[in-house]
Design brief:
Helix content: 25-40%
CATH architecture of the largest domain: 2-Layer Sandwich
Radius of gyration: 18 Å
Strand content: 25-35%
CATH superfamily of the largest domain: Bira Bifunctional Protein, Domain 2
Number of helices: 5
Largest sheet: 7 strands, mixed
Number of strands: 12
Order of helices and strands: HEHEEHEEEEHHEEEEE
Shape: globular
Number of domains: 2
CATH class of the largest domain: Alpha Beta
Strand order of the largest sheet: 1-2-3-7-6-5-4
């Protein structure tokens, strides 16, 4: 990672953040949380590799050295409990837009916040609130992002070989800067209807027959359903084989692809 190039790309994008670049970290999210405890905000933490990269539900996220873009953004957002679910969708939109605008690659979003290319996962997003969420108050939030840029032989926590964007590693700085600008723009506020409309345009899960795993840790199928919509607060609306409508705000869904 070229720190000088990254600073230039951030400046060109107009993304005003404090930057930390590391050769190796346990997790960029952990470091961002430490910065929050130190009273910092509007910070970008980048690492060439993560020793203990984390995904949703504590799963490991493969972060081999110099093969991807691994970074976390610390910022404060005005949140309520009702719209917190929209942040994951807004972050997914920001990552999708950054990838397509910088690389020209048309990726897709798998609910809630995984990035897929050609039926393989190439990226993931994890959103963590670092304070109590109450309506009208700013809350520190860390948005951790991992994107596989170059092919590697690493496998994910489910034993599946990870996909990759297949771009040159010297494009990572522009990619990180573009996504960071999109994330930082959330500080200016966002319209829930617009977030959902954009998300639905690129969500590969909608319209698919899926298997729902309510206990995602044990990976035991709970029931089959069809994903039919995204609710106003970000939940996935599914219809079971018996015709029952359900809202999912947690758990795991599989559409027969590499998770």
């Amino acid at each position: 990672m070229d720190e000088h190039r990254l600073k230039r790309c951030l400046r060109d994008e107009g993304a005003q953040v404090m930057l930390e670049c590391h050769e190796s970290l346990d997790s960029t999210n952990i470091r961002a949380a430490e910065l929050c405890k130190e009273g910092r905000t509007d910070a970008l933490v980048v690492s060439e590799e993560q020793i203990k990269g984390r995904g949703r539900r504590g799963r490991s996220f493969c972060s081999p050295k110099a093969c991807g873009a691994y970074f976390s953004i610390l910022l404060k957002l005005r949140l309520s409990r009702e719209d917190f679910g929209l942040i994951s969708l807004a972050a997914a939109n920001a990552v999708h837009s950054g990838i397509t605008s910088v690389t020209g690659i048309d990726v897709e979003i798998k609910w809630i916040n995984d990035i897929f290319l050609k039926k393989r996962k190439v990226g993931g997003i994890m959103v963590e609130a670092l304070g109590e969420i109450s309506s009208g108050k700013e809350v520190p939030v860390v948005i951790g992002i991992g994107i596989n840029c170059a092919e590697s032989k690493e496998v994910n926590s489910l034993g599946v070989e990870a996909g990759a964007l297949g771009i040159a590693t010297d494009m990572r700085e522009a990619l990180i800067a573009g996504i960071t600008k999109n994330i930082m723009d959330l500080k200016n506020g966002y319209n829930g209807e617009d977030v959902i409309a954009r998300y639905k345009e690129h969500c590969m899960t909608l319209g698919s027959n899926i298997t729902v795993y309510e206990d995602a840790e044990k990976r035991i199928p709970t029931y089959n359903a069809k994903a039919i919509d995204i609710a106003d607060t970000g939940e996935l609306v599914v219809q079971t084989e018996m015709g029952e409508l359900k809202l999912l705000n947690s758990g795991e869904v599989s559409i027969g692809l590499s998770l």
